């Protein structure tokens, strides 16, 4: 895993955005899988600004959602699709037909997951990831093996409680759909993004604990092209 450590949060945002712009310029047809949550929002804002300044374009690209909460109303601001729209898609130039989202309201969730994987059609060019305090990636909670497929999952208590930061009500989601570890690990390139002090301990464990499905993020260490983007506070417990 390549470690990209930035001195400040603005430098971290700028670094990730600069790399991302470069990837898109080199391959305008880039097929990406993108997370939501708080971690990527400042990066999405920078990227949206770059699109508006016509420095980069998503016109030929494709974007797939990484995960989605079940049991929230379609217009709930905490739905991953709505977060991604609010922070990136509404301000970018991606054609709607090149956006693929996991739909938790589908009648047959297994068929929905298979159709999503079929739409991806092969390895993603780039997967961006945040990390949960329990080391989950997307909604691949501890116990998710390297071969896990895109599927319905029950959320761990820590993830349910964390989701309170995204919604404005008490009906917290208890399950979701997620791209599986298999599709993440098969991607051509993976970036794990972490900022802030609250992520320092899980980032230390991701790097130092035994590689195990008990800590899904640690499985990224066997990926041949994975980079960890950390700001100084998230990197605080890493040795040089
Ligand atoms: P966060 O969530 O970006 O809001 O911290 C990350 C995650 O739980 O995967």
Strand proportion: 15-25%
Overall mean pLDDT:
97
Global Rg: 17 Å
Quickly count the helices. 7
**Series of secondary-structure elements, N-terminal to C-terminal:** EHEHEEHEHEEHEHEHE
Query: Helicity, in percent?
Result: 25-40%
| pLDDT < 50 runs, ≥5 residues | none
Ends apart, CA distance between termini:
14 Å
- Tell me which ligands are bound: 2-phosphoglycolic acid
Describe what this molecule looks like in 3D.
By secondary structure, the protein is an alpha/beta fold. The protein contains 7 helices and 10 strands. It has helices spanning 9-26, 41-52, 80-87, 109-120, 157-162, 181-186, 200-208; strands spanning 2-6, 31-34, 62-65, 67-69, 99-100, 126-129, 151-154, 175-178, 190-194, 226-231. A 7-stranded parallel sheet has the order 1-10-9-6-2-3-5, sandwiched between helices. A 3-stranded antiparallel sheet has the order 4-8-7. Strand 2, helix 2 (41-52) and strand 3 (62-65) form a beta-alpha-beta unit. The protein is globular, with a radius of gyration of 17 Å. The protein binds 2-phosphoglycolic acid. Residues 37-39, 130-132, 136, 162 line the site of 2-phosphoglycolic acid (PGA).
């Amino acid at each position: 895993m390549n470690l990209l450590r930035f001195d400040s949060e603005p430098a971290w945002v700028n670094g990730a955005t600069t790399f991302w712009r470069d990837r898109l310029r080199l391959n305008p047809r880039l097929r990406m899988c993108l997370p939501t949550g708080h971690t990527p929002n400042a990066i999405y804002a920078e990227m949206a600004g770059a699109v508006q300044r016509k420095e980069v374009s998503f016109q030929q690209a494709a974007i797939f959602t990484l995960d989605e909460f079940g049991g929230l109303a379609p217009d709930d601001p905490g739905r991953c699709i709505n977060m991604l729209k609010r922070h990136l898609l509404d301000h970018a130039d991606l054609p709607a037909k090149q956006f693929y989202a996991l739909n938790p309201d589908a009648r047959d969730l297994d068929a929905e997951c298979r159709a999503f994987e079929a739409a991806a059609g092969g390895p993603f060019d780039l997967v961006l990831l945040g990390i949960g305090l329990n080391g989950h990636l997307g909604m691949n909670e501890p116990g998710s093996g390297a071969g896990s497929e895109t599927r319905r999952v029950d959320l761990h208590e820590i993830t349910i409680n964390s989701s309170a930061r995204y919604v404005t009500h008490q009906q917290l989601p208890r399950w979701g759909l997620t791209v599986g570890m298999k599709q993440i690990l098969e991607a051509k390139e993976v970036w794990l993004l972490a900022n802030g002090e609250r992520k320092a301990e899980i980032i230390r464990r991701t790097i130092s604990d035994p590689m195990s499905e008990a800590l899904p993020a640690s499985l990224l260490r066997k990926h041949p092209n994975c980079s960890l983007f950390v700001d100084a506070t998230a990197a605080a417990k890493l040795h040089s």
